[in-house]
Amino acid sequence: MTEHSLIALENQSFDELSDAFGWPEMHRLNIAEVVCERFADGSNRLALIAENEAGDCERYSFDDINRLANRLASAFQLAGIEPGDRVAVILPQRVETALVHIAAQKLGAISLPLSVLFGDDALEYRLADSGSKIVIAAVDKLDLIDELSGNLPELQAVWAVSESAPVPATTVDRQDRAAPSETHASSRIEAADFWGVLRATDDAQFSCSSSPDDPAFLLYTSGTTGPPKGALIPQRALIGNLTGFECSQNGFPQEQDVMFTPADWAWTGGLLDGLLPAWYYGAPVVALDYKKFRADIILSLMSRHKVTCAFIPPTALKMLRSEPALLERYPLALRAVMSAGEAVGEELYRWGQKALGLDINEMCGQTEHNYLIGNCSALMPVRPGSMGKAYPGHKVAIMGPDGTLLPDGQEGEIVAHKDDPVHFLGYWKNPEATASKYTGDWFHLGDIGYRDAEGYLWFVGRADDVISSAGYRIGPGEIEDCVLKHPAVQQVAAIGVPDPDGIRGDVVKLCIVLNPEIEPSSTLEKEIQTQVRTQLAAYEYPRQIEFMEALPMTTTGKIKRMELRRMHIERLSS
Fold first, then answer.
1. What SS3 state is found at 365?
2. Does the pTM exceed 0.70?
3. How far apart are CA 110 and CA 248, in angstroms?
4. Per residue in 313-345, pLDDT tens?
5. Rounded Cα gap, residues 326 and 52, in angstroms
6. What are the residue ranges spanned by the domains of the chain?
7. Could you say which architecture CATH assigns to the domain 467-573?
8. Which H or E run includes 337?
9. Which contiguous run of DSSP H or E holds residue 329?
10. Sequence-separated contacts (24+) of 131-134 with Cβ below 8 Å
């Protein structure tokens, strides 16, 4: 057990650890302080190794990160950003992304991570709904932001990152004190160069005295109906992640630990399951700015930087499994791997034992209530196919349709108690949606499952229609709204069906009823696929489309998506 660890894995069982655990008292908490400031002590302790696909690499110490984040917080303040304002960042795994999050926390602002994969509709909705005042984005996003800016009345500033290679920390020390250079002009907002802004800003010291319940992040999550909902994540949620993080990494940190995840920092998985918890312990993180997952680049990176601990989604693990020669070429130093986003399954688990020499620790969590359930092979037997057990400090139960808690062995909905530091504050500007997620003090996760006599939880299926594909949670409502914009479409249902390649878990399938006089065609199919890819996100792309005469409906006019999925699977089996 190290200085900052919450649990000790030595000399006790998992159940003993869980029974004895209690959360530390938290009267004051700021994420920037616990993941950065306390390690910026002049020792130049390594914080980040940032690479791109070309192999360009820079290293940053906690002193570098803290100094640059202080200067960025000062620049935010000069730009009119105040506590509680939303700061949007649309960047891949880069040092600038981390700096935006740390600087926002230093100022008491709320950081809004957004995926570089988002198209115009997805981006416009999130920026408008959040009321973001500033956007930091890659230069190739500026034309899109320009097009959207007329519908974003609260947006006041856009700063662009134009560099492809990682930028040295010393770039702000150049004697260039001129005004930030303009990189792009729109009808309403002139975009300034990110590093130019920092060079033109004086050094300053920032430290926000926030409380555990103060908001830190706004993360949009897909649901089954309506547009995505913004989950407001408090400062305390980082602490609530830590017991699961320590367990899923089989005791973290250990000497020489280095953390990596290919998961995008725009999502809970990359940000709160990878970057920030590793920094809480002062451990270095490897970042990779890449456009498409390539096993050779990932394995080379992990080998060169001696990555010991990783969060790798099942889809990515399957892609690594398909390249056995690369695993032989790039020797790995891995001692622990956590995987989440979809089921790992016994076959992939056994491959991990043989090819990686370790037990893959499957984990289950959600944006609203993260790092809740999982495995810890250092303390308990991993049962392939099981979600694991509730991590220390988290209370999980199985609930029946009438709201009663069920005994072990009976199927019901998996629920989590809201009295938990990891639990979110609610959905942004949507109290009705927030209230609908609770029965008493229990939060509905939307998963159907059961708990066995030894406390292992087993997943049976989804209580809603959310699609899990390649580690992404995809709400059918947003896709259906997009497809209905096509003039040929009368009705549509988006469902998840098994990936024929066995890589992504499920893939998105559209069941479409066309308007009268419209005939199905491959051209129309490609038009609809392109519309989803460009307006929403590439990962929401419908890989299968079936044109139908009618969709199965309930008596109240709701589409029976589960019936459509059943029909698809029955056809496959026959």
1. coil
2. yes
3. 28
4. 988 898 898 889 999 999 999 999 999 987 888
5. 19
6. 467-573
7. 2-Layer Sandwich (3.30)
8. strand 336-339
9. helix 324-329
10. 131/86, 132/86, 132/87, 132/88, 133/80, 133/81, 133/85, 133/86, 133/87, 133/157, 134/76, 134/79, 134/81, 134/85, 134/87, 134/88, 134/158, 134/159
